Amino acid sequence: MKELDKLEDKTLKELQEIARQTGLKRVTGIRKQMLVDRLREIASQQAESLADFDQQEKKPEIPAGPEGPKGPEGPEGPEGSDQPEKPEG
Asked: Does the model's pTM come out above 0.90?
């Protein structure tokens, strides 16, 4: 976040270019301090979004287990569909 501290040292033209690169459409006619504040706000929102994304990525997956996701019979029934069914009885 040291880069955000350096925004104050940038010229208005430099800030306008940074703002354009971040996707802001209206960058002229804005005072320097307002542009700095807006860029910091955008950076903060992006940091929050990244933190949310990271937390979603860290959620543990529930493993399917040795039988696979469909259970012991598998997706095609007991012992697969290639073998004929044996009559019970």
From this structure: no
